[in-house]
Design a protein that fits this description.
The protein is of the alpha+beta class and 79 residues long. The protein has a domain at 43-79. 30% of the residues lie in helices and 19% in strands. The chain is built from three helices and three strands; from the N terminus they run H-H-E-E-H-E. The protein has a three-stranded antiparallel sheet with strand order 1-2-3, covered by helices on one side. Helix 1 (16-24) packs across helix 2 (26-33).
Length: 79
């Protein structure tokens, strides 16, 4: 079976309240996961974003540098 989505599980070492804010606030999300996000998350919409080095993990940020500015679509299914 083929699929058109990628799913990944990760362990975030932060308080639940901090994680919730990072997942629901587009600017926080971008800083954590390494992307430039223009505008708020709106359920049921697609956003054009670009890779930008993360602000929370220097090791990951270094790996993202080669892709800085690379655009891609982000589908916001639900909040």
């Amino acid at each position: 079976m083929t699929t058109d989505k990628i799913e990944k599980k990760i362990l975030l070492r932060a308080p639940q309240s901090r994680i919730w804010k990072a997942l629901t606030d587009s600017q926080q999300f971008g800083a954590w996961f390494g992307m430039k996000v223009n505008g708020p998350f709106v359920a049921g919409t697609k956003m054009r974003v670009a890779i930008a080095p993360t602000k929370v993990n220097p090791e990951v940020a270094k790996k993202q540098e080669a892709y800085d500015g690379y655009p891609f679509d982000l589908m916001i299914e639900r909040i």
